[in-house]
Amino acid sequence: MSSRETILNRIRQALTDVPLAEAPQDVTVDRSYLRRHGERTPEQTAELLAENLADYRAVVHRCTDAELPARIASLLAAHGSRTVVAPAGVPARWLADSVAVERVPEESTARQLDTVDTVVTGCALAIAETGTVVLDASPDQGLRRVTLVPDHHICVVRVPEQVVDSLPEALERLSPRRPLTWISGPSATSDIELDRVEGVHGPRTLEVVLVRG
């Protein structure tokens, strides 16, 4: 018996007590599991997010909404960025102080995006307990490729409205019909020797700006 047949037989055995006419939506799923680990104030949730983002080797910055254009300009300058792609929904004021940077259309091909220094986006939300930023291709986040090809990603997260404590809370706010990208730190992988290599499946550098006000 092949491995495929073995797996299919086990699936059939597991489904022997399931009526043929039963559909997934006919089954009530128990949602009584723990939704979050402890009680936190919004400020504590934001601090936990920052801590876990940093643990995943993302670089975390904090500023007010009024300071955001200057902060983005300083991050681009520190990275030596001369070109930037920003989706159409990114407010123009975010890049108002980045006058020396050329803005590249988000419709660029993957080959063209590979020459872009930085991508600047918003986010759908961020999860504190896992240190994860989620993108859903909304206008301020753009096509998935714009955040996977350039080597440097600056992601703006509004605090506290875009920060949730846990994965269950995030799933309630996200649409399964959207193309979701879940980002926990810069792209990285390790070989069998556990040598870490960054920038394999996405940006080598992730900078998250937590914005208040």
From TrEMBL:
Top-level taxonomic group: Bacteria
Ranges where the LUD domain occurs: 47-211
Biological classification of the source: Bacteria, Bacillati, Actinomycetota, Actinomycetes, Kitasatosporales
Official protein name in the record: Lactate utilization protein C
Gene3D superfamilies hit by this protein: NagB/RpiA/CoA transferase-like (3.40.50.10420)
